[in-house]
Amino acid sequence: MMNWNTLISAKRFGLEEYHEERIENRSEFQRDYDRLIFSAPFRRLQNKTQVFPLPGSVFVHNRLTHSLEVSCVGRSLGNDVSKALLARHPELQDSFLPEIGSIVSAACLAHDLGNPPFGHSGERAISTYFSEGKGLALKEKQDNGEQLTAAQWEDLTHFEGNANAFRLLTHQFEGRRKGGFVLTYSTLAAIVKYPFSSSLANKKPKFGFFTTEEEGFRRIAEELGMERLSDSPLKYARHPLVYLVEAADDICYQMMDIEDAHKLKILTTQETQDLLLSYFSDERKGSLRRTLDIVSDVNEQIAYLRSCVIGLLIKECTQAFLANEENILAGTFEKSLIDHISQRPAEAYRKSANISIEKIYRSRDVLDIELAGFRIISTLLELMIDAVRSPGKAYSQLLINRVSDQYNIKAPVLYERIQAVLDYISGMTDVFALDLYRKINGNSLPEIS
Prior knowledge:
Elements: H1 4-7, H2 28-37, H3 40-44, H4 63-88, H5 100-110, H6 119-131, H7 150-157, H8 161-170, H9 185-191, H10 214-224, E1 228-231, E2 234-236, H11 240-263, H12 269-277, H13 282-293, H14 298-323, H15 325-330, H16 343-360, H17 364-389, H18 394-402, H19 414-426, H20 430-440
Antiparallel strand pairs: 1-2
Helix pairs in contact: 2-5, 4-5, 4-11, 4-14, 5-9, 5-11, 6-17, 9-10, 11-14, 11-16, 12-14, 17-18, 17-19, 17-20
């Protein structure tokens, strides 16, 4: 059984040997939040696709606005859960339990940092390059005798943005300090939705850390007293706060995608209103409709209903967490919090998800950006992997010299060179990836004065 006293720790990854608590107005977990929001990888999220193509004449959500909104919802979830837990466990008043809202909001800021350009098509492009494309050649022993291990191959063929986020936050890039972002153990644990290695990815389509970060995650999990389910392959039960981060993400992407679809006229105003009102009882619907009657702006009407639904889902997920606290701490809780909400909002959420799949994620604009993104990422991967495999070629040198020094593109080990390529490409914005693709293909040349 996991214990709240050990689950929340202010120890910082990379500073274990000389950890000291600072005396200042900000808590350690608020410092995590500030460190993330001022970072370059977080800023780059403003030009990474969430669902719809960027940019457009109608402003829709990108990864940056999505992460900020998820963080707000996560803070509310964390604060509500914290308040209830303290009432239930008054002996924890002097622990870090009151900081749950700060931890969850920081973890929510970071949850998408590892996603490559062009949304989920970028992840698929990376995975399929190794599992179906020219990257298949890397599975065999190379001419110089190098060969990837089975675990390393699983990392590549099941490339996962969540695992990449944990790497970005903890890996010591060239010229940087040990520990990456040097975040607290609890914030890092709250980010890892799938706390097991890629060797289990055939049974579960996602995983939480690459081979290179396995020992780092093990150190965090053992320090926090997370429930270890298997040692080989490594697998832990989720840190309890992961459920709140996941719930905040589930709430936001579903609601905001519906709102964006309305703005882009993929869904009519009536369709959108009916969908959002279906979360509420008949009595509550009447109250909401009276408010809509005094608001003439249709976008404001949808925004109002969306905010009401978010408030309802925060309450529902808070109740689900509290009702299942014992199972969550035991590591036996199944599925997500959103799967344990009461019947009416659960049915409405499923309907929203089905409409999103049918009318939003399969819309022509979304599919076009996924097709383009897939092509761009695949091409950049092919050229960069060829360059690190054959660095002596003249063209390979040109490509390698273009890569920032923070990426260990000349590492002596093949897997590390491949990871450096993935670090470089996954950190790109949509615009940067497109620009580099055009230049490499000779479609765009720099201006010559």
